[in-house]
Amino acid sequence: MKQKKIPMRKCILSQEMKPKKEMIRVVRSKEGEMSVDPSGKANGRGAYVSKNLELVESARQKKRLEQFFDSNPDEMSPIYDEIIRLIYREMIPKR
């Protein structure tokens, strides 16, 4: 049986290539609205972030997402919070 190809994406924070399922997508829509896209199917300019708390916290301090999307820090604060919430949600074992 033929092996199914695993889609790989590059993390904008660590520059590492990882499977798409191990990443969180951040999207800017055509209207300029920023959001976290857990499904990976929202329209707009997307970028992938590794599910690594230390990496996300470091990026928040260095304003890496603001630089990548060329946006203001006030707009990105809830995005960082949502990414961290999604990482914690996956850390909790499902019953």
Automatic annotation (TrEMBL):
Residues 9-83 form the YlxR domain. InterPro entries: YlxR (IPR037465), YlxR-like_sf (IPR035931), YlxR_dom (IPR007393). It comes from the Bacteria. NCBIfam families: RNA_bind_RnpM. This is YlxR family protein. The lineage of its organism: Bacteria, Bacillati, Bacillota, Bacilli, Bacillales.
